[in-house]
Amino acid sequence: MIPAEFKYLCPSTVDEAVRMLAEEGEDAKIIAGGQSLVPVLRMRLAAPTALIDISGLTELTGVHDAGDSLLIGAMTTHYEVQRDHLIHDHALLLKLATDTVADPQVRHRGTFGGSLCHADPAGDLLAPALALDAVMIIAGPDGRREVPASEFFAGYFETAVAPGEILTDVRVPKYPGWGAHYEKLNRVAQAWSIVAVAAAVQVRGGTIAAARVGLTNVGAGPVRAVDVESALVGQPATAEAIAEAALRASAGDGYKDNLARVLTGRALTAAVAG
Amino acid sequence: MTATAEPEVGKPRLRKEDARLITGQTRWTDNIQLTGMLHMAVLRSPVAHARIRNIDCSRATAMPGVALVLTGEDFAAEQGSLPCAWPITADMKSPPAPAMAVDQVNFAGEAVALVIADNAYRAADALAAIDVDYDELPVVLDLAEAVDDHDLVHPDLGTNKCATWVYDSAEAGSGTNVEDEIANAEVVLERTFRQQRLIPSFMEPRSVVVDPSADMFTIWSATQIPHILRWMLSATTDIAEHKIRVIAPDVGGGFGGKLQVTPEELLCLLAARRMGRPVKWTETRTESMMSAHHGRDQIQKITLAARRDGTVTGLKVELLADMGAYLRLVSPGIPILGAFMYNAIYKFAAYRFVCTNVFTNKVPTDAYRGAGRPEATFAIERMMDELAVELGMDPMKIREMNWIKHEEFPFTTVAGMTYDSGNYEAATARAMELFGYEELREEQERRRADGSAVQLGIGISTYTEMCGLAPSRVLGALRYAAGGWETASIRMLPTGKVEVITGTSPHGQGHETVWSQIVADRLGVPFEDVEVLHGDTASSHKGMDSYGSRSLSVGGTALVHAADKVLAKARKLAAHMMECDEADVEFASGSFSVRGTSTARTLGDVVLAAHVAHDLPEGMEPGMDADATFDPDNFSFPHGTHLCATEVDTETGMVKIRSYVAVDDVGTVVNPLIVDGQVHGGLAQGIAQALFEEAIHDETGTLTTATFADYLVPSAADLPSFITTRTSTPATTNPLGVKGVGEAGTIASTPAVVNSVLDAVRHLGVRDIEMPLSPERVWTALQGGSADASTPAAGGLGSIDSQGGQQ
Hints:
The structure holds 2 protein chains of 2 kinds.
Chain A: E1 7-9, H1 14-24, E2 28-31, H2 37-42, E3 50-53, E4 63-66, E5 69-73, H3 78-83, H4 85-90, H5 92-99, H6 104-109, H7 112-118, H8 126-131, E6 135-140, E7 143-148, H9 149-152, E8 153-155, E9 158-159, E10 166-173, E11 179-185, E12 195-204, E13 207-216, E14 223-224, H10 226-232, H11 239-246, H12 254-273
Parallel strand pairs in A: 1-3, 2-3
Antiparallel strand pairs in A: 4-5, 5-10, 6-7, 6-10, 8-9, 11-12, 12-13, 13-14
Helix pairs in contact in A: 10-11, 11-12
Chain B: H1 18-23, E1 38-44, E2 50-56, H2 58-61, E3 66-71, H3 72-75, E4 104-105, E5 111-117, H4 120-127, E6 131-136, H5 143-146, E7 161-168, H6 169-172, H7 178-184, E8 187-198, E9 207-211, E10 217-221, H8 226-236, E11 244-247, H9 263-275, E12 279-282, H10 285-291, E13 295-306, E14 312-324, H11 334-337, E15 350-359, H12 373-391, H13 395-402, E16 411-412, E17 418-419, H14 424-435, H15 437-450, E18 454-464, H16 472-477, E19 486-492, E20 498-502, H17 511-523, E21 530-533, H18 551-578, E22 585-588, E23 591-594, E24 600-602, H19 603-612, E25 626-630, E26 639-649, E27 655-665, H20 672-691, E28 723-726, H21 744-761, H22 775-782, H23 796-800
Parallel strand pairs in B: 1-12, 10-11, 14-15, 20-21, 27-28
Antiparallel strand pairs in B: 1-5, 2-4, 2-6, 3-5, 7-15, 8-13, 9-10, 9-12, 13-14, 16-17, 18-26, 19-20, 19-25, 22-23, 23-24, 26-27
Protein name (chain A): Carbon-monoxide dehydrogenase medium subunit
Keywords (chain A): FAD, Flavoprotein, Oxidoreductase
Organism (chain A): Lentzea atacamensis
């Protein structure tokens, strides 16, 4: 790797990291697992003046039970998300989407928070975070603030994290007993999604009580398929109802639009079955 | 002659080189650190076609750590023109190929300046400070348009057409006239196929270190061809050959991509000479993809004449082959290597092959695994399926009707090749049995009847190829500049250990293991007692290196001959030592004995006696070393039957390989584990052409698939568990009976996959889909749309670089 020169800083607390960000100015960059930033540095598509490495911030790792919700540290790796029992029991969709991220090496280094902050529209964790109404907790010079996922993703590689701020934790409401599925179409295992669909469904007595559907890589950010969700609620959990609702998914025109409908149908079918 | 109790040949030995390669406990070129070493970085043109108006290096020169900044003009007097060793016709047009552009750039990625600095970081930093003014010229990218000469890549040539090469069976006397066969045919099929541009994708990026000290230029390079490189560097520069030593240390893959004399090797040499200090250059992956040579890129127009009973009577092949911007080492000859293979395993009455090589403003093309033969095999195997569909016949039956029967070998083909041996019936029978052909056909019928969303297809590829490059007289007749022999030496050390020196240059193949097995058998010494030296022109002074599945059949044969020379001399000395007639000496398991007695001397005893030379027969030289050089009389012709079943999701266009059976006949197998490895890797690469890989340029000529996020190389997760086995019809043209296996999987698999996908969806109205068969292309074809659809890509670096191959 032959990146441009940068200063390398290693804070040991979030407060110290925020202070460093303020001191180094807007050309400083946080580096978490490095799975998105390092390739960009290698290719010299970016040349930050300073890298603030937050991999030593143990306060940002792990998954905690916070009553009605889970609190997931931003530095929790994909590998840890895949194996966490709380996530498995209360936010299964997140685990299933994480299972499909890249390859084992990337999943061991890459982090949940880093992936959300990178905000690649083809990234697999954005749509689940949106669908599950995750709330992002962001630390800055003026303390901490909370931003719902619906306001967090601001477009192509853009989020609500302002210069000088750090995503510290993600609050995900619990969805106990919900069925979930992440249906992804990509060309080779380590490639990004062409389109993927994140679906979580609550079925009570054969009826769909609630549904959450998010689409990956059909726009500048993740897209919540609200028409699909509303078409499902109150319907019997049948193939016909799912097929009918899936028709309301869309992604512009052509191939991706077709994929949005086909994969939504498949994701919902699997989520209901699961 | 097998000398040991348990033969080494045929044993699935683990590779002796693997431990050091896997753990990195070895010398890759980029690991080499020399005292006082400088680092070179190369500035590459971002535009595909332009005049260079001005290059301002003043800012870069002033940057910290920068020793020197040079442009093509600075090297114009000494860089010469990179060699092309294969002028396929007397009137071939060959533009000057400077290592660094002097006044015009002809592809995006071409070197325009270089920086020498005290470390690689500072060298890379300084690149950004070099200012180049370009006057852009019209860009010639499309092969079919380039041939019209509307805009010219090299205006001085007056045309984009480089050369046209023809083989005609009527003219050669090997068959009838193809136009007559077409005129008289009951069925004529005409199809056009596109061989997309591919990138060789070796694992280790290219790297060069040049040390100019001690009145000698020592060059380490991640190359397949140290011997040819030494020769060509001296032919290109004013540096004499004996003042150049080339070392290819462990090299991490090549696939033909390192069968090259590269601009950077030459520039590194000239820079080291100018600085009087060692200089290293190591490329990044993106640099590799935009400047190292590419492969394939042809348009194939195929006309097939046949009778209604399925007998093929004539084949006409009209090719356009994209050379890119310059002719590299063997660029023009690559499509010509396919000329002898379009008729494949079949008996056609007439054959005509016409290839026009064309310049475009793209990276030069050259050898890539299979080199000409995958293209030929793809075209004919696709056509045999097309004919079966046209006539409503089973595709295997139609092949069987036309192929050479096992009792007909040796067989001289309509392309003038003499196939020494083969048994297509045996390989096919084995493959059909392992595949469960009939059951799959039944399932296919059921799915069609049900209108299942996932359709099943079966694809066949009954391939052959020519390996063992090559008889020197044939190369001469094809106007190739070099010979095709190979050399080997055996040094018997006084302790009985054996050093083998080979002229082949392994870069992942496992020659150290296989050569040791051959020598262990031949000389009756333990496998572990053999050391194989290669890739250093100072130790292996002579060789033609490794490519074209040649190393075992040509280099292995030279090794057998060298071993036999050692034994012949040892037998004489053994007779002298045991005071018997040479005719009474027997050799077995590494020991000489006098027939009918218990008197014996081990080979080690005899070697020591030769070494100390105290008591040798009259006229015998001390020592027990031997050299041999072997020039083959003929190529070798591996063949096999590959069967592929794919499931095509008609709702998404996604193709999944359900099962893949490869039955290959590569003659005698020295190490079945290595042969399996070669077949597996070859299949992966051939399947990759069918489904995944494609070098894509935007309309300005920028390569948009210049990272592995965009250029989709499959991993094990994307491939099925292959079923591989072998039939064996030994080659009759070398003493080992071997045929070569390095390219077989790649050559065979591409048409098997494409045929199977088309078989799955043909009943839905799809006639053809262009490679790679991406889900979008398959889906679009199913909608009745154009088969070559492509839309902007997606994802990660793919999102940043928005027109890559992700989608």
